Amino acid sequence: MRVLLLDGGDLGGLVGARWALVYATVDAPFGPALETLSARAPRVEVFGATSFRGVLSPSGFQRGVFALIGEAGDPHAVQAVRASAPRRARADARAACAEIRERLGKRSDVLLLHATPGFEERILDGVSDAFDGTPPPLYGGSAADDDLSGRWRVLSGKSALPEGFVLVGFASDRQVHGSFVAGYMPTERRGRVTSASGRTVATIEGRPAARVYNEWLEGAVSDVLVSGGNVLARTTLHPLGRMVDKVGQVPRYLLSHPHQIHEDGSISFFTDVAVGEELSLMLGSEAALLDRTDQVAARAGRGAGKIIGGILIFCAGCVGLIGYKTSLVAERFSQRIQEAPFLGASTYGEQGCFLGTSTKNRHGNLMCDAVLFE
């Protein structure tokens, strides 16, 4: 595997390419780059997504169009793309899995998902259906732009879709490893959801969710309780978490990022939340967000042989918080995988499977996931 800069870079490195994972910032000429790539290498499987403020690679965190190139001897990859929408995403995902299996000729070892934000859970439901409830581990992240304006795109071949998803199946003669981590600690402040619809929680323990959350934050969002407002930036270190699994005595939390408080006291998230689920106030820090880069690589690589390449997904909300230090994320990940080629995206939602548990693929916020290839 190798990493190429596609906008203005040397495309001579496409010789022998079998697939190309492409990540790009929305201001970069990814459309022309995809056209050129497809013209130079028409048989190459091209897939990817746009990324928030930059792309992670061994060179750091930079704007532009980048590709991780798979070649002869690397894991085989095939994709299925759908210009999908919420109401048909589950059925589309089932069909995409069937298409991938037919093209691969076998079950995928690992799946990679890039979707536009808003209906990721429906896609995961469809993937689970396709494998009768026991799907391969799936990792990935939701396409992003720089400012939540909707300029995000899912990339496939020469196409850049404003709504839909691309699903990629990897098959290899050697092991493919993955991990999914939060990097936040639970506090003692918690409550059960008593009223919710989709991604909006109305009440916690029978009280307006926003008032409960504000009390947990000791008044940090008091100014928007009456008129409502966007709280995305100031809640990055204080998401709400659900304990969804436990390995031994170690609980695994799936995070949900509060982004909007409404006049009626409800809170909207970037994930679905169901009635009856217990939400815990989580606590994060800049240092912990950097440290989890080591954790995600170490957990994925535990017991692995020589790593020949990797994929890193790091939440856009966390990138917005740590800013210029994001280059340290790339640096630390590169060191952990012994400087093997890799590419990473900063996303508006993360998908993954917790290690050591049943194969349950989940969608969360403010998370980090990785795929490593032997």
Task: Note down, in words, how this protein is organized.
This protein has about 375 residues and is of the alpha+beta class. It is built from 7 helices and 27 strands. It has helices at about 30-40, 90-105, 120-130, 210-215, 285-300, 315-320, 325-335; strands at about 1-5, 15-25, 45-50, 55, 60, 65-70, 75-80, 110-115, 140, 155, 160, 165-170, 175-180, 185-195, 200-205, 205-210, 230, 240-245, 250-255, 260, 265-270, 280-285, 310-315, 340-345, 350-355, 360-365, 370-374. The strands form 4 sheets. Strands 14, 15, 16, 17, 18, 19, 20, 21 and 22 form a 9-stranded antiparallel β-sheet that branches. β20 (about 260) and β21 (about 265-270) form a beta hairpin. α2 (about 90-105) crosses α3 (about 120-130). The longest helix has 16 residues, at about 90-105. It starts with a strand and ends with a strand. The mean pLDDT is about 95.
> What kind of sheet is the major sheet?
9 strands, antiparallel
Secondary-structure-derived class: alpha+beta
Helical content, roughly? Answer: 10-25%
Question: Given the C-alpha coordinates, what overall shape results?
Answer: globular
Strand content: 35-45%
Strand count? 27
The average pLDDT score comes to 93
- Specify the number of helices: 7
Radius of gyration: 20 Å
Low-pLDDT segments, ≥5 res: none
- How far from one another are the termini? 11 Å
Features:
single chain; 374 residues; alpha+beta; 9-stranded antiparallel sheet; 6-stranded mixed sheet; 39% strand
Protein topology:
Layout: E1 2-5, E2 17-24, H1 30-40, E3 45-50, E4 55-57, E5 60-62, E6 65-71, E7 76-82, H2 89-104, E8 110-115, H3 120-130, E9 138-141, E10 154-156, E11 159-161, E12 165-171, E13 176-181, E14 185-197, E15 200-204, E16 207-208, H4 209-216, E17 229-230, E18 240-247, E19 250-256, E20 258-261, E21 267-269, E22 278-283, H5 286-301, E23 309-315, H6 316-322, H7 326-336, E24 342-347, E25 350-353, E26 361-364, E27 368-373
